[in-house]
């Protein structure tokens, strides 16, 4: 009897893990990284402008719209994708780690260009 319970538990565990399939309409992890990189850059641009907070929010929304157009992604699809990935801490951590790495690389490349005078 105990063996049957263990086997049943193992089967349920395997079935439960296999059901983590990504639903249709959710951006791939690679696409999320690309979009999030540009969104983070957009937030930085809007925040660095010498304008009021309200104006920077308006500017951000305009720039964000351009990001979605650039990547051919609707804002609702992006929002749905964020909601999906936030349910899986390991996935969203991996996505943001890639975003941070990419932004750090852009920054260090930019700093290197500034130092060489290009």
Describe how the helices and strands are arranged:
Layout: H1 2-18, H2 29-48, H3 53-70, H4 75-86, H5 89-116
Helix pairs in contact: 2-3, 2-5
Walk me through this protein's architecture.
- The chain is mainly α.
- The chain has helices spanning 2-18, 29-48, 53-70, 75-86, 89-116.
- Helix 2 (29-48) packs antiparallel against helix 3 and helix 2 (29-48) crosses helix 5.
- The termini are far apart.
- It is globular.
- It has a domain at 30-106.
Properties at a glance:
81% helix, mainly alpha, 118 residues, disordered N terminus, single chain
Which of globular, elongated, flat, extended, rod-shaped describes the shape? globular
**Average pLDDT metric:** 85
Distance between the termini: 74 Å
Instruction: Give the beta-strand count.
Output: 0
Which percent bin holds the helix content?
A: over 70%
State the major sheet: none
Rounded Rg: 21 Å
Please provide the ordered H/E string of secondary-structure elements. HHHHH
Task: Flag low-confidence runs.
Answer: 1-10, 12-16
SSE class: mainly alpha
The fraction of residues assigned to DSSP E strands is under 5%
| Alpha plus pi helix count | 5
Structure described in brief:
This protein is mainly α and 118 residues long. It is built from 5 helices and no strands.
């Amino acid at each position: 009897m105990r063996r049957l319970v263990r086997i049943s538990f193992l089967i349920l565990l395997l079935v439960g893990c296999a059901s983590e399939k990504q639903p249709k309409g959710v951006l791939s992890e690679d696409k999320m990284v690309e979009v999030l990189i540009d969104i983070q850059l957009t937030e930085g641009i809007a925040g660095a402008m010498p304008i009021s907070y309200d104006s920077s929010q308006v500017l951000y929304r305009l720039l964000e719209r351009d990001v979605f157009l650039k990547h051919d992604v609707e804002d609702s699809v992006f929002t749905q994708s964020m909601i999906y990935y936030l349910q899986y801490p390991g996935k969203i951590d991996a996505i943001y780690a890639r975003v941070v790495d990419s932004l750090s690389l852009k920054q260090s490349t930019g700093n290197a260009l500034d130092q060489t005078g290009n």
